[in-house]
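Section 3.1: Structural characterization of target chains.
Under the original work plan, the team committed to producing a structural model for every single-chain target entering the pipeline before any wet-lab resources were allocated. The record below documents one such target. The sequence was received from the expression subgroup and is listed exactly as submitted; it comprises 429 residues.
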Amino acid sequence: MVYLLYDCVVWLTAVFLVPCYLVRGLLQGKVRRGIRERLGFFHKDRFVGFKGKKVFWIHAVSVGETRAAISLIKVLRKNYPEAVLLVSNVTETGHAIAEGIKEIDDTLFFPLDTSWVVKRVLQRIQPDHVLIVETELWPNFIRQCHRQSIPIQLVNGRISDRSFPRYLRAKKILQPVLEQLSSFCMQSDTDGQRITELGAPTDRITVTGNLKFDMESTLPPDLSSQQLRQQFSLPLQTRIWVAGSTHAGEEEQIIEVHQRLLKHHPDLILILVPRHPGRCKSVGELLTQASLSWRLRSQQPDQPLNQGGVLLVDTIGEMLKFYHMSELVFVGGSLVPTGGHNILEASLLKKAVVFGSHMHNFREIAVLIEKAQGEGRIHNVDELYMLVHSLLNAPEKCQKMGEQGWSLLQRNAGASNKTLSEIVQCIRD
């Protein structure tokens, strides 16, 4: 009865949201993808190549989860070279990232979580093993996998400060769902304790660490900053700072900081990367109002960007390239109460990383990075200006902070192999 009611709620929500989703896409000039896939309809020959092979279905909701899963995907490919690795996503941006991972055999949009759709998709794909990245708990999907004896594991699991109270209120509903999972590979002791309080069986919980510490750079080892500057039509000699994964309410502050920095560093370039590329139009209006020279990443100009200007990024999948060119990085979602984004990508390239106080989605990582670098956390626009200004005036200190962050990554690596051990054990069972 509960699942019937849940089905009705999901279908009613979809009837309202899908038209809104399509109309919004038209207004933004986008062609929305994956509607048929989300409803369980595929070409008749889509999964023919899966027959006779072990199929791992990895579900990562969006960009952050997909990037986090890359190290585990590589380990799976190495240990199961003949297996099929399939990745599903909810968001279009996450799907675009997944399509660029060479170890993956196929990608799809996650099915609408109703009994009929989920049954249809599982029947077509017939996965042998399902891995859910972080905390994407879809009741019908988990229930149908459990009914078909498909092992389903939570990997890189975490329960954020913001979501934990909500999950606790829904414990009576959530606990039966958790009991159907084969195991829980959690990021930290805190995450392990929280999933226990929510009703997960304690004998299935293991702290395997954070997969984000196992990231590897996808850039060619011989790629130079000069080559990238030529690719993006940026001045060859000027210094660059990056504000990545920014949200509404942050760009205004970033623009103010850049204007103040230009008084002391008139040739400084800002690469501004909104978390959602669809917001670039409104961000561009802010740059114009601030009388800053700027252009979109997607434009192909004949001349390099003016010194002191802003490259506004309306594409995805190139963040490491921007970080590689920079002196230092600010990671957004942290000056506003969004919860922050992955600050380890900057450390991966030995760049000093700066972030705001709203880092509850990356609480432990933020503490570790701040301790390793000696600083990095700021609380307001004035502190952001002062820290960036001081680091630009002290390049050796800036470089040292980046190296200390990179050393932290090396010390905490290993979550992929620990998670693989849990997966192998689950397969044996």
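The first helix runs from residue 2 to 27.
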